[in-house]
Amino acid sequence: MRTKKWRETVCKQISPLPFRMSSLPFIHGNGMASAGVKSRFTQSIEKCRRLPYGFILGWNDPLWVSVLLLVVIVATGWFLLRIRYRNQQQHLKQEHETKIRILQQQELISELQLHNDQLKTSRENLSLSITEKDRFISILIHDLRSPLRYLYKNTAYLFRNWKQDSPAELDGLITEINNSTKQIHFLTEEMMQWISTQDHAYGIRLKEYFLLEIVTELEELYKENMLQHGNALQLEVPSRMKIKTDKVLLKTILRNLLDNANKNTDDGVVRIQARQAYEKIVVTVSDTGVGISPRLLQDINRYFSASEAMPGLNTQFGHEIIRDFARLLNATVVYETSEDGGVLVSLTVPC
């Protein structure tokens, strides 16, 4: 291959040096031969002067085809690589956009599923709330019906016969009316107290009390009701026993237990007892009444240990209050059969 160094060597050999005679031989003879040599010599010098700037190819030189073919191949390869690179970039961009859309769709599906679950939960809670409301209304009406019926019958009888009845008869009638109105009053007060405890922001008010004082207040409150049923109330509570509790809640629980014992007993005895058991106090309310069956006893205990209503169990609003208030006091309620055949209810309360 003809390099730049080769061209310089050739030019030095055939170019005359300044101030020196050319060493090239001349053909002596006629002038035509000498002129031809000079002409070729001049052409060689011109070619050498043009060689450092590159080769000068003729249009009919076959090297042009190779050069053009090489240029076309390089340009085509570069163009194809450029197209491939661009396609790869577009493909990567599309894949990235597709992944983003898939993630967005998955997030949307998750949100829709979450909203659907929340809607389902809200629907179930609403259905449960409606069921509880209906049950609460039916229990309330059932508990109000009895004292209202007695109140209506006694006031109607009093309206017709108050002029001719003796003072003793009127006294007994007025006592029954007083008891009926008292039951209605207690029921409405307890209902309002129970409604307030359904609020999660409700806070119990713990304070130390003598247990006998609370029980004595109930004795005074139920003295007339006990006499009406012919029952005797016996208190077996230590005089110095103290309990740290919410007085309103505890008194409401004991009042309902005492009321149930008095209703289910005629000419008998109702006892309220209390004893210390480690760091707890066990208060029992027992009666000598008709008692309840073992199956119903089991269902009632399941009701007090569960957080929802027991299907088929005809509970009263008083039972609802006892269960909810006992939970607020961290207390437990257990129903048993007493030794006298009646019912014994144990209320275990923290000191």
Automatic annotation (TrEMBL):
InterPro entries, alphabetized: BphY/WalK/GraS-like, HATPase_C_sf, HATPase_dom, His_kinase_dom, HisK_dim/P_sf
Q: Which organism is it from?
A: Larkinella rosea
Supply the enzyme class, top level: transferase
Q: What start-end ranges are recorded for coiled-coil regions in this protein? A: none
Molecular function as annotated in GO: ATP binding; phosphorelay response regulator activity; phosphorelay sensor kinase activity; protein kinase activator activity
Q: Domain (Histidine kinase): give its ranges.
A: 139-351
Gene3D superfamilies, sorted: 1.10.287.130, Histidine kinase-like ATPase, C-terminal domain (3.30.565.10)
The Gene Ontology biological process annotation of the record reads:
osmosensory signaling via phosphorelay pathway
Report TM segments. Answer: 63-81
Q: Catalysed reaction(s)? A: ATP + protein L-histidine = ADP + protein N-phospho-L-histidine
Q: Which domain of life is it from?
A: Bacteria
Keyword annotations from UniProtKB, A to Z: ATP-binding, Kinase, Membrane, Nucleotide-binding, Transferase, Transmembrane, Transmembrane helix, Two-component regulatory system
> What protein name applies here?
histidine kinase
Question: What EC number(s) does its UniProt record assign?
Answer: 2.7.13.3
